[in-house]
Amino acid sequence: MAARRWRSDPALLWLAGVSLVLLGELAMPGTKLFLAGPGFTCIVVALVRAPRMTEPGIGMRVMFLLGEYSYGLYLAHALSIQLVLVYLPASLWSQPVAVFAGMIGVGLGVGILAGSIDVALYGVLKNRIDHWSRRRLAASAWAGAC
């Protein structure tokens, strides 16, 4: 019965995934890849199995914004991690939690900034294309009427 609950409860899967990822960060360097992969798999499965958020609230808004900014997060995360690795003081290298928190914090900060710029530029570009296509369509309709 306990095994069935473990497989069906998204919160337990999410907790297991986060635990594996953090354990991979804190463990020996060679085990990181072997723990992070299954950890992120558990997180993704938990998110897929989670009940849908239909109530408007802060959780729904945060998830919506992360979805909107996901392309910017994707583009900026590698650069952010490299920045942390280059500019992190040597005294913090012995604290893997600080390194991990720095990577996540800088990655999210730079990614959200890049994502908001991406969304704004997309809006401007979409409005220009829509305006241009309406003008073009009106011009062709007028030319066809003559």
Order of helices and strands: HHHHHH
Number of helices: 6
**How much is the radius of gyration in Å?**
22 Å
Into which percentage range does the β-strand content fall?
A: under 5%
Number of domains: 2
Largest sheet descriptor: none
- Residue stretches low in confidence (pLDDT < 50, at least 5 long) are none
| Beginning-to-end CA distance, first to last residue | 77 Å
User: What is the mean pLDDT?
Assistant: 79
Q: Level of helix content?
A: over 70%
Outline? elongated
- Given helix and strand content, the structural type is mainly alpha
Number of strands: 0
Architecture overview:
The chain is mostly helical. It has 2 domains: 1-51; 58-146, no CATH class. The protein has helices at residues 2-8, 10-26, 32-49, 58-68, 70-87, 96-145. The model has no long low-confidence stretch (mean pLDDT 79).
Topology:
Elements: H1 2-8, H2 10-26, H3 32-49, H4 58-68, H5 70-87, H6 96-145
Helix pairs in contact: 2-3, 5-6
Give a short synopsis of this structure:
The chain is an all-alpha fold and about 150 residues long.
List the keywords.
mainly alpha; single chain; 2 domains; 146 residues; elongated
